[in-house]
Write a structure and sequence with these properties.
Strand content: 15-25%
CATH topology: Rossmann fold
Helix content: 25-40%
Bound molecules: manganese (II) ion
Radius of gyration: 16 Å
Number of domains: 1
Shape: globular
Oligomer: single chain
């Protein structure tokens, strides 16, 4: 039986669905009006997808002028993330998803990278979706490093980049798993979890060429292990 993977609804959900399918999972796009705990009870794994910004009030800040929020998504995804972490349901968080995960777990965000740090990198390259914008350094020994492969050259990994915010203070229980050369946190993960990884880039845009197939495979494997052990 294929593990059932919930995907939070977003404007470009097809690439997430295809990435999960190719990794051997059964994708199910959720609805913001679902009851978070009830939705989770049926799932073996959860993908938090990309989209607009998390409401800064949720981490104790007033909104920056560039911040654009999605209240109906926050209301569903924050409790969904907390419940998934509490139940140790395998979780892969992408772009807005990693920001939701970090805030839901007690961390903060950088609200606007261009006005917050001096960087020679462009983190907002919209098209083409699979254009590699900058490399990230993947921390050795992390779940992310294991998922991407063990060869030494994967320590530096080119990624796409469509974000103006990033993880600020990493939530308790989480570690930084990847950073870009300007110090922006590009991935976090929860220690002592079956699989709980969040990336700031968009690995789902690469299903045609498979650069990040290992990340989806490892996530779906963790969800499958959960099915087996009940
Ligand atoms: Mn970036």
């Amino acid at each position: 039986m294929k593990p059932l993977i919930g995907i939070t609804p977003c404007s470009r959900v097809d690439d997430y669905v295809e990435s999960i399918r190719r990794a051997g999972g059964e994708p199910r796009v959720l609805d913001n009006s679902d009851d978070p705990e009830r939705a989770l009870r049926e799932l073996d794994g959860l993908v938090l997808t990309g989209g607009l910004d998390v409401d800064p009030l949720l981490y104790g800040e007033t909104p920056h002028e560039t911040t654009a929020t999605a209240p109906e998504r926050d209301q569903f995804e924050i409790p969904l993330s907390r419940a998934a972490v509490a139940l140790d349901i395998p979780l892969l968080a992408i772009c807005r998803g990693v920001q939701v995960l970090n805030v839901a777990s007690g961390g903060t965000l950088v609200q606007d990278i261009p006005s917050a740090i001096a960087s020679d990198l462009n983190h907002s390259i919209e098209v083409p979706k699979d254009h590699c914008a900058h490399p990230v350094r993947v921390e050795r020994g992390t779940q992310l490093a294991k998922a991407l492969g063990s060869s030494a050259d994967l320590e530096t990994c080119p990624v796409n980049s469509r974000h103006h915010q990033s993880v600020g203070r990493v939530a308790p229980g989480f570690i930084t798993a990847a950073v870009s050369s300007d110090g922006i946190i590009e991935a976090i993960e929860r220690t002592n979890a079956s699989f709980c990884v969040g990336v700031q880039w968009h690995p789902e845009n690469f299903w045609r060429t498979g650069e990040f197939s290992g990340l989806f495979s490892r996530f779906v494997e963790a969800a499958r292990a959960r099915v087996k052990t009940g």
